# Entry
Amino acid sequence: MNPALKNTSTAWLSVVMVVLLAAVPYVLYVSGNTFWLDIFTRLVILAIAACGLNLILGLGGLVSFGHAAYIGIGAYAVGIPAYHETYGGLDAIASYNGFVHLGLALLTSAVFAFITGVISLRTRGVNFIMITMAFGQMMFYAIVSLETYGGDDGLTIDLRSELPLINLDSPLSLYGLCYVSLLVIVFFTYRIRHSRFGLTLQGAKSNEERMNAIGVNCYKYQLTAFVLSGVVCGYAGFLLGNFTTFISPEMMDWTRSGEIMFMVILGGAATLWGPVIGAIIFIVLEFVLSEYTVYWHLPFGLLLIFSVLFLRGGVTGALHRLGKPAVRSQS
Amino acid sequence: MTSPILEVHNLCKSFGGVVATDNVNLQVTEGEIHALIGPNGAGKTTLISQLSGLLTPDSGSIFFQGNDITGLPPYRFSQAGLARSFQITSVFQELSLQDNVALAVQAHAGHAFRFWRNARKDQALQKPALDYLSRVGLADRADWLASEVSHGERRQLEIAMALATDPVLLLLDEPMAGMGKDESAELIDILNRLRGTKTLLLIEHDMDAVFALADRISVLVYGKVIASGTPAEIKSDTRVRNAYLGEDDN
# Structure
């Protein structure tokens, strides 16, 4: 496709998304439909996680199946310090301070991503999928085994993170924080995509042997992307913990990793707004389909298969192609 | 000008029972165009893969500019100044020609841990990238995707990418493969213009191209170098004639 056309359609899509995600929940909230604000908050948090995964999956072409672990890490980075502040013990991290929670979430995610990335990135393809999934499950069982924090039953967060200027107990403020975070992260991924770093990642995705032949060691770039991606998902976890105030190992189960992956692929891997659109579709389908049947994953799965088979670049890719000739004639 | 830039000593490589590289000794002199010829299955690509680090030899050593580079990972070979093109075209299909070359320019420039600045507007990348594209005659295709251009143009792109890493020695694995007469002639012209500025080690089946380009020729048969010399010497060498007897590709 003509790059100029694609740029214009991405710009239009950006305007639509920025306005839509701000106006719709706000109007619904002030008109008394407070329930909808919750839906939108969850949507935006999932969209942030999907954007995080897209850094490694879309840009790097590496299918990580363990990214829910980072959401769990982020959420427990809120829950565990708050728990100790309430019930004592572990003075080093016991706190209600949002910056402590945030720092812990980002740092732990980065360390976990680094350690697992160093090992996982030595593999490719199915092996990479399996090993990232295994590390995710390892984290899942580690949290399950922590009886202090409720183990299987989960942990209730009594008090949300305390931040200056923003009161996370106010649903509207919490949504505002999530919304601004999403925009910042989307902009950040936009810059990364077009940077030297992004170009290197796309080269590695396209043809790793070629990258080697021109003298690039792809490993360190992929590891950096993997860590960045984990940190963004850890941040999503920090927000999710503050949103739900109830956290459990279930949120880092491998099926959750699968859901984030679905969002990225359905919405359009490697596109700017694809993960966000994927998250919107996911939430809408979950909401609509679960009205009719508890087996709502079945039609969702069929839709995903349809998307992979027929919509190159997911829904966003299809939107970009609307009415535009994609093939250039030889001249 | 006469010092060997690449020296290969007693290189051996076998796959199972098949000896693909059998005690190969080879010297490439700085500034020359050195052609490596031999019948199909002689082990030419296996040899060049070892010279670019994609395969590790079983024994023997490779010296490049006096340094032992045997067994280093492939990206180190490129960093040392050895660039290669592939027999089966290997480019970034999803990226534009300019991005393809820009990646090679940036690879040569060092690390790419720059997360913010738009690389597509970075003149330090794009100007040289366009420059290398125009050297191989592809400047007017700069914003086309690599998957959209013809096979011959992709081969030219490969050479632009190899040049963009500013190599001392260029390893070209059958650059004319699958090309028509006109495209071949164009490529011979491009390679001829590199004479003197780069050292070239060329694998080629097209004997017209070999004799049009090469300063020296080495002949590889069953993994062994059976002759090495000027085109005239090779033409009159009886061992070479015997090896090629019955071959119809010269």
